[in-house]
Amino acid sequence: MLVSVIIPVYNGGKYIEEALKSISGQTYEDLEIIVVYDRSDDDTLDKIHSAMDIDDRIRLLEFDGLHSVAKSLNEGLKAATGDYIVRMDADDIAVDYRIEHQIAYMLSHPDVAICGSGFRYIVDDEIKTEEYYPLESTADIRMGLMLRSQFNHPTVMLNAKLIKEDLHYNEEYRAEDYDLWSRIAFKNEVVNLHEVLLNYRLLDNSATTRYADSMHQDKARIQRSNYARLGIDIHIDEDMMLGASSVEELEAWEACLAQAADIIQPSYQCYRQLIYQLYNATSQKLKVSFNNDVRFSKSFHKLIEDNNWQHNITLRSYLRYLGKMIKYKVG
Hints:
Elements lengths: L2 E7 L6 H9 L6 E8 L5 H11 L3 E6 L5 H11 L4 E4 L5 E2 L3 H11 L3 E12 L2 E2 L10 H7 L12 E3 L16 H10 L3 E13 L5 H4 L1 H18 L17 H18 L3 H19 L7 H12 L9 H16 L1
Helix pairs in contact: 1-2, 6-8, 9-12, 10-12, 11-12
C-alpha cells in the first residue's frame, strides 16, 4: 500500500538532511517522499539533491515564492499518488517505525480518517525524555477541537480516499491544520495513537511564533465554525474565544462548552484536560495567578485530581468552580 510523505521546506538546510534520513530509513518501505521546496537562501536544495542520490523514492517539487505552508502542502497533495498521506516537517525526526505502526492501524481501522500520535520535543538539538500525548478518541478530539487543535501536525497520517472532498488546506489560514482537522473530525472517525512516533523540534523562528497574531484570529474563526457544526449558535466575539477576561465572559464560555459537551459526550479525562486549558488561558488573560493562593489553589487541584468523580459530572460544574475562583480574585 503506497504511502505519500509530504515535506514542505523553506530555508531548511540545517535540518532537512536529518529529517529525510529519518523517513528514508523507515521500516515501512512502500513510500513516495515528496519534498515541496520553496526557493531558499541557504543550502537546502543541495541537501535535497544529495538525499535524492541515495534514495530514488524522493521526488522534488520546486517553487519560487509560495511563502505559505498551506500552499506548499496543497502542491504536495496534488502530486501525491498514495492512498495514505503522511505529514512531516523538514526539521523533525520520525521514529523509524512510525509509518509501519500508523499504516497498520489505518488498514485495520478503515473508517479512521486521521491518525496522529504522541511526540517528544527537540530543544537545542537535544531530544527530551518527556512524552506528550494528545487526546486520543474521536469524541475527546471533537470536544478538544472546541478550544484548539488536537493533532500535532507532523505526526498525522491521512486516509486520502476516505476524505477526498476535504483533503485540501485553506490557504487563507495560518492555522491551516486546525481548520483541516475540524472539517474532517466532525464527519469521520479520528484518533491519536498512545505512542511516541515523532521527535518535534521547537524553534524560536517557527511559523507559530512569527504569525502568532493571525493564527489567534484564525483560531477564533475555526472555533466558531466548530460550534456551528454542532448546531450551536454562539454569541462570543473573537477576542473572548481566546480566553475569558471577566466573570461574565467565563459564564458565556461555560454555556457554550456545556452545550458542546452534552452533544459530544467526551470522557472524564478530556473534561479534566479542557479545564486545565481554560484555567490557564483565563488566568493568563486576567494576569492573575491562582497557584500562590493556598485556599483556592489546593481546593481547585483537589477537585481536578479527584479520580473518584463520576463520568456524568458536567463540564458546567467544573467551570462554575473556576468562576468562583475568578470572582474571588477580581471581585
